Each structure stands twice: as C-alpha cells, then as structure tokens.
C-alpha cells in the first residue's frame, strides 16, 4: 500500500485531496498543526467509511514537529511514496510591492517557501526508498512570472497578492532546482495550481473543492512516463495543463 503525507490536510483542498487518495486505496497521513483538529477529522473520515487515514502533527515552521513526523512515518511505514506540500498562507490581504513591509514577506515566506524546503529535505530520504516517489508542491498561477507580466492575462490588473505571489514564485524555483538535482532518479516533482477554489483561503468563493483535489491527485499519481519539473494549472490551460514559469 502506497503512503502519502499531506501537509495542512485537516481542511480545504488538503482534506479533499486526502479523501480522494483514500478512495484510491492509499494510506494517508493528514498533517495538521493542531493534532486534535487532525484527529477529529480522521474520526469523521472513519465514520464515513474511509480507512487507512491517520492524523500526524506537523507544523512546517517548527523543525521539531517535522522531524518527529518523519521518525514516526519511518517507524510505521519504512518509506514515503508521495509528499504533497499543501500547507500555505496568503498573509494579510491586500498586499502591494510599494508598501507592504518586510515582516509580512518574512511571515509568508516562512510557511510557503521555507516550510516546503524544511519538509521536503526532511522526508527526501524516505521518498527515495519508494519505487515511484512523487512530490506535489501546491502552487498558484499568480506565481507565474510570465503570466503576471502579461497585460493580456485576465489577472494582470488583479495585483493584490505581491507577497503571496512572490512566495509561490520562489517555491516554484525551488521545484525547478530539485527536479534537476533528482533528474536521474525515479522521483517526479511538479508545481500544481489547484485553481481558485471555495475554501477559507478565498472566503469560499471560486470553484468546487473536488475539482481542486482532483488536479492535485492527478500529479501525485503520475506513472513513470509522467512529467517532472513542470508547472501545471488546468484552470489556466485546460488543454495541456502546463503553464509558463
């Protein structure tokens, strides 16, 4: 049975991704900063008939919780097949490049960039023990430098995410470099935008969470012929899904 860890999985897109992977027969660790919230969600999943779900405490800003989670998964599973770096924050909205302070940039980067780096590096050796390891870094199309600088892009004038978009662009670059360094292994890593989705993150405005979860699951379950080191937003490009960095 393949094993997956999803950070920030006790609600929203992370939880929906967990449900869909459970339906496909995977063992899912639902990462949660608040372990009690995670356990509550797992009980709800169990009551709904889902099996093989387990809450695990992990705060991507706290190395101690990351390494404790790593030790637990190694002890219980011996390896990790899929890592979904889903945990993220938007920061205080609106944001702008001219006036938003450095402290706001730091707090968002702490989760959206440094958190991804911490978790990925901590679990990389367990992933490389898998026959088909996969990493999905949950990104956003507003983190695309090419799109955001294109006056013809629908969101070109919707510039209130200077901090959030910068953090995701930086995470995208980390994705590119990691894919390059692991190009001679079986590990595949991609940045995936789930689309503008009805969650707490958006004030419950946008598309359905089921579609967002499906987009992440697709790249979490790539076969060996699948892409690596790419950026996907099927909301932006319904034909092939791939969008420019």
Question: What is the compact description of this entry?
Answer:
The chain has helices at residues 12-23, 35-47, 63-77, 102-112, 114-127, 145-148, 162-181, 209-220, and strands spanning 3-6, 27-32, 53-57, 82-85, 134-138, 188-193, 231-233. The protein is an alpha/beta fold.
Name the descriptors.
7-stranded parallel beta sheet, Rossmann fold, alpha/beta, 8 helices, 245 residues, 41% helix
What's the mean pLDDT score?
94
Spell out the helices and strands N to C.
Answer: EHEHEHEHHEHHEHE
CATH class: Alpha Beta
| Gap between N and C termini | 34 Å
| Percentage of residues in strands | 5-15%
Taking the sheet with the most strands, its summary is:
7 strands, parallel
Low-confidence stretches: none
- Rounded radius of gyration (Å): 17 Å
User: What is the correct CATH architecture?
Assistant: 3-Layer(aba) Sandwich
Number of helices: 8
Which structural category fits the helices and strands?
Answer: alpha/beta
Q: Helix proportion of residues, in percent? A: 40-55%
Number of E strands = 7
Q: What is the approximate shape?
A: globular
CATH superfamily: NAD(P)-binding Rossmann-like Domain
Q: Give the total of domains.
A: 1
CATH topology: Rossmann fold
- For the largest sheet, list the strands in their spatial order: 3-2-1-4-5-6-7
